[in-house]
């Protein structure tokens, strides 16, 4: 995993353990989205930009689970893709 539950909790300033399973599922889904976008598997040795992109997506889905604002999502997605763009495997795209 690129991001741990403890890292996500620190990033989100969460001080309880009630949502650890939920955060773990958000991390898995966010990492899968990053791997799908880049067509590259990531692990704990991945570049810091990948780490930040996964944290960004986890944060977005945690903080905006009740807010369907398209503009907030598009802003996050643009940042997510900009962080990951240099790490794509273009050969694996097609």
Name the features.
94 residues, mainly alpha, 4 helices
Q: How many helical stretches? A: 4
**What distance separates the N and C termini?**
26 Å
DSSP strand (E) fraction?
under 5%
Main sheet record = none
Tell me, rounded to a whole number, the average pLDDT. Answer: 94
> Tally of extended strands?
0
The value of Rg in angstroms is 13 Å
Helix/strand-derived category reads mainly alpha
State the helicity in percent bands.
Answer: 55-70%
**Globular, elongated, flat, extended or rod-shaped: what is the shape?**
globular
Element order, helices and strands? HHHH
Low-pLDDT parts are: none
Q: What's the layout of helices and strands?
A:
Elements: H1 5-12, H2 20-38, H3 48-63, H4 70-84
Written account of the structure:
The protein is mainly α and 94 residues long. The mean pLDDT is 94. The protein is globular. It is 62% helix and 0% strand. It contains four helices and no strands. Helix 2 packs across helix 3 and helix 3 (48-63) runs antiparallel to helix 4.
Short characterization:
By secondary structure, this protein is an all-alpha fold.
């Amino acid at each position: 995993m690129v991001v741990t539950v403890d890292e996500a909790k620190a990033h989100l300033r969460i001080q309880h353990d009630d949502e650890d399973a939920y955060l773990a599922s958000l991390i898995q889904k966010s990492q899968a989205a990053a791997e799908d976008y880049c067509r590259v598997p990531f692990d704990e040795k991945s570049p810091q930009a990948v780490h930040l992109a996964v944290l960004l997506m986890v944060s977005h889905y945690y903080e905006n689970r009740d807010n369907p604002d398209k503009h907030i999502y598009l802003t996050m997605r643009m940042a997510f893709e900009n962080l990951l763009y240099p790490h794509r495997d273009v050969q694996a795209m097609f």
